[in-house]
Amino acid sequence: MKFRVFARLIQIQRVLVRHRLDELISATHLLRPLRFAFYLSPATWFQRKRGGSRGERVRLALEELGPIFMKLGQTLSTRRDLLPEDVADELAKLQDRVPPFSGSVARTLVEAAYERPLGEIFSEFDETPLAAATIAQVHTAKLLDGTEVVAKVVRPGIREDIERDLEVMYFIARLALRYLNEAIRFRPIEAVREYEKTILDELDLLREAGNAAQLGRNFVNSQLLYAPKVYFDHCRKSVMVMERIRGVLISDIEELKRRGTNIKRLAENGVEIFFTQVFRHNFFHADMHPGNIFVLTDDPEHPRYAAIDFGIVGTLDPRDQHYLAENFLAFFAHDYRRVAQLHVDSGWVPPTTRVDELESAVRTVCEPIYNKPLKEISFGQVLLRLFEAAQRFNITIQPQLILLQKTLLQIEGLGRQLYPDLDLWQTAHPILREWMRERANPRTALREFRKQLPDLGEAFRLIPKLITQSINLAAEGRLNLPTESRTIEQLRHELRSYARRRDLTIIAASLLMSSVVWFAFVAQPLWPSGLLAAAAIVTFWNSRRAIGGPPP
Q1: What phi-psi label fits residue 303: left (phi over 0), alpha (psi between -120 and 50 degrees) or beta?
Q2: Number of neighbours of residue 141 by Cβ within 10 angstroms
Q3: Could you point out which of 82, 117, 322, 535 has its C-alpha 20 to 30 Å from the C-alpha of 495?
Q4: C-beta contacts of 359-367 below 8 A and 24+ residues apart
Q5: Could you tell me if 419 and 264 are in contact, meaning their C-beta atoms sit under 8 angstroms apart?
Q6: Backbone angles phi, psi at 541, to 5 degrees
Q7: Which residues are catalytic?
Q8: Distances from the Cα of 211 to the Cαs of 185, 193, 201, 232, 305, in angstroms?
Q9: What pLDDT, in 10s, does the model give residues 491-536?
Q10: In whole angstroms, what is the distance from residue 539 CA to residue 551 CA?
Q11: What one-character DSSP code corresponds to residue 254?
Q12: d(CA 227, CA 205)
């Protein structure tokens, strides 16, 4: 293990101990013995936080540990059904009240990005941040023509912090894959790799500006969602300038009610926005915590969402998109056999899975929550129960769907806060049904065919050349066929497990032989040698059975 990873693990332990969160150390089993070294350290005695509620201590620890941990806290803050109220209240502060960095540092960073004095870009720039988040903080400003804007500035040194914590995540993922038999189904390395791509993309504000513009085009003239205008001439990789939004944070329920906002319609619109983004646009805002969502109340009876922070967006492969929609519709229709069959057809479960058994498992989990209001169900609990039921079917976690699952949980958390009586199924069902109807429309098929015509023409033109190349490669013995990487990974995992059992056998055999030699050369063997020999024989016996061999 690299020294930097080991040092970071120890640092995590130290922060947890200092904030009196020792129970988390015991729960994670991670470097558990080292906690006693921290207890014996005088530095811990004096730095150990004495005051503060449990929730405050959790929030402060996450803030001290850095951006990846704060993002975890942001996600958890939307799940009040899974957290104690005091912890959820404190984690909600991570949504837009993360400790800021110095305004003078922000000015210096902006001038470095533009390579010009700030006065040549803005007529005004407020060094006091309007809001601070995990990746960047926001300052109000005015362009030279007087237009009110906000300037988003990436935190200094954050890439190094994130890359260090990603190394820790990869290390833990490799340990899990090596020592936990069930880990291969969860594909931990692929999951970390997917998260790495997402979090590093979030550091590029030019990419975020493009995401904001795309979302704005998708919802142009919409009464559901508004995306602020982006001033691309003033955007750089570490600085983004966009229109200033004046609305009410969606978490400020009391202010929304004071303005006469139709809360029920607002909650239903949130569900419609999610399903419209995922299935109609195939481009969804994937960081929907309350700190990133405002409500425009110009017309309180028809409130509009206003999104900010477009650093994390998601798209789906058309095949996954189709299977997800079919799964939702089958669930709405209580057709659990269809749900099970779709899981087999999509490759999310092995092809040898018995559909009737998977159908029964899905029905057991899903039927009790059907037609219940949101306040009486929890997708988080449902997902956990589904994962537990899925273990016997070797369902493989799909890393490309992690963002979607995270966003769905956030949407549920928002809906739960806004309007607990929301009927999620009744709201979503017509949207999905209309989307499926459009996909089946011949005009839609013809339109898609026309889009593909140039690609089809180019493919037909290249077919003779590709056939000739393949024949030549086959004749020269250089034609290689791809193999299924998942099967190879499973084989590697089994070989590693066998190697560990083999090593255990060798060690046990060595102990046994050492004991025999000791008995042979010592005239009056002492009782420890006898115990060693007995232990070696028992260990050797058990290890032989562990690798499938007969007892000696």
Answers
A1: beta
A2: 22
A3: 535
A4: 360/336, 361/389, 361/390, 361/392, 361/393, 362/336, 362/386, 362/389, 363/336, 364/389, 365/389, 366/331, 366/336, 367/334, 367/336
A5: yes
A6: -60, -50
A7: 287
A8: 32, 21, 11, 12, 17
A9: 565 666 655 555 555 555 554 455 444 444 444 444 444 444 444 4
A10: 11
A11: H
A12: 16
Which residue reads 């926001």 in tokens? 138
The total number of residues shown for the chain amounts to 552
Question: Which residues contact residue 229 at a Cβ distance below 8 angstroms, ignoring those fewer than 6 apart?
Answer: 216, 242, 243
Could you give the CA distance from residue 325 to residue 343 in angstroms, rounded to a whole number?
Answer: 12
Q: Tell me, what amino acid is at 362?
A: V
Token code pair at residue 37? 């070294």
Six-digit token string for 133: 């988040």
Separation CA 174–CA 183 (nearest Å): 9
pLDDT band at 146 (very low <50, low <70, confident <90, very high): very high
Phi, psi of 157, rounded to the nearest 5 degrees: 75, 10
- 401 closest CA partner among 255, 198, 104: 198
Q: Write down the H helix ranges in 318-441.
A: 318-332, 336-346, 355-366, 379-390, 402-418, 424-440
pLDDT in tens, 401-444: 777 777 877 777 787 788 888 777 778 888 888 888 887 777 76
| pTM for this model (two decimals) | 0.69
Residue owning tokens 């809906």: 415
